[in-house]
Specification:
There is one protein chain. The protein has about 280 residues and is an alpha+beta fold. The chain has a single domain, classed as outer membrane lipoprotein receptor (LolB), chain A (Clam), CATH 2.50.20. It contains three helices and 15 strands. It has helices spanning about 5-45, 60-70, 155-170; strands at about 80-90, 100-110, 115-125, 125-135, 140-145, 150-155, 185-190, 195-200, 205-210, 215-220, 225-230, 230-235, 240-250, 250-265, 265-280. The strands form two sheets. It has a 13-stranded antiparallel sheet, with helices on both faces. A two-stranded antiparallel sheet has the order 11-12. The longest helix has about 35 residues, at about 5-45. The radius of gyration is 22 Å and the shape is globular. The relative contact order is 0.15.
């Protein structure tokens, strides 16, 4: 009679198979993200643009002029794209624990587009990866357990709006992208506030940029962002607070931001973001 396989051998075989499947899925996920990054970089325009000059902003609302004159210097070369290294912490609710995030973001300065590639660590034995993007007029995102098992896929009109606003607000790290174009225009509100209106295809977002007397964007507010609930997406007022400005390659940018949902029962501060490294690319 043939002896039945021993239980440890069966367990070992199953475990090895699961590890191989996990490794293959995680590798495919990384290749997928790399493909999105390559698509973004290939999409960035190569046409020559004039260097920054305060004369180019003379027709813009006064707060925008003040901000751009603070962030940029005359003769500043147009930035085609930037790569940001980010450390952050987030939480899903006021009574929920914080988790840490390490991310790299590829941000276009020529037309709407970015890819955010992140590692979310809750503790040693529970971590996730995430990818958020806006490219060719569409927003997309995914969330994967252990980098391999898909937990969420994000797409559709709400994602398009949220990701296009994300691109707009992230341009505080790439200020030449906030110069007016066919897609981006500014409207005056008051001496310290201007409205940015950005459209890409059928998707259109608006945000208020609040600029202090020194020319720093102190906060950005919008209703063009959607909060992810278990019951679906909810359009919710959002504020991004900017602070600790530093000069990097001649450009003044915030190195710390705070993310806040402005809820009916009070503000919910859910994210703290620190810029660890910023590289500009001009060609």
């Amino acid at each position: 009679m043939t002896e039945l396989p021993k239980l440890p051998l069966i367990f070992g075989t199953v475990l090895a198979t699961l590890l191989v499947l996990w490794a293959a899925s995680a590798l495919l996920s990384r290749l997928f993200v790399r493909r999105w990054i390559k698509r973004l970089l290939r999409s960035i325009g190569k046409n020559e643009l004039p260097a920054y000059s305060s004369q180019r902003t003379a027709s813009l609302p006064e707060p925008v002029q003040r901000y751009l004159d603070y962030a940029l210097r005359d003769g500043q070369q147009n930035i085609r794209y930037a790569i940001l290294k980010i450390r952050a912490r987030f939480r899903h609710g006021a009574d929920r624990p914080w988790f840490t995030v390490s991310a790299t973001e590829y941000l276009s300065g020529m037309e709407p587009g970015f890819v955010w590639d992140a590692f979310l660590k809750h503790h040693t034995f529970w971590w996730r990866t995430a990818k958020l993007s806006f490219l060719h007029g569409e927003g997309h995102g995914h969330l994967k357990l252990f980098g391999a098992i898909t937990l969420r896929e994000l797409e559709g009109a709400e994602t398009n709006h949220s990701m296009l606003f994300r691109f707009l607000s992230d341009l505080v790290w790439l200020p030449t992208g906030l110069l007016p174009t066919k897609a981006l225009r500014w409207e005056a509100i008051d001496g310290n506030t201007a409205k940015a209106i950005l459209a890409d295809g059928p998707t259109r977002v608006e945000a208020l940029f609040h600029v202090n007397d020194d020319g720093q964007v102190e906060r950005i507010t919008t209703n063009s962002k959607y909060r992810d609930h278990r019951s679906g997406f909810e359009q919710t007022q959002f504020t991004m607070r900017c602070s600790n400005y530093q000069r990097i390659d001649g450009v003044h940018v915030p190195t710390q931001v705070t993310f806040v949902w402005n809820l009916p029962d009070g503000d919910f501060e859910y994210g703290h973001f620190t810029l660890k490294d910023l590289q500009y690319y001009f060609r």
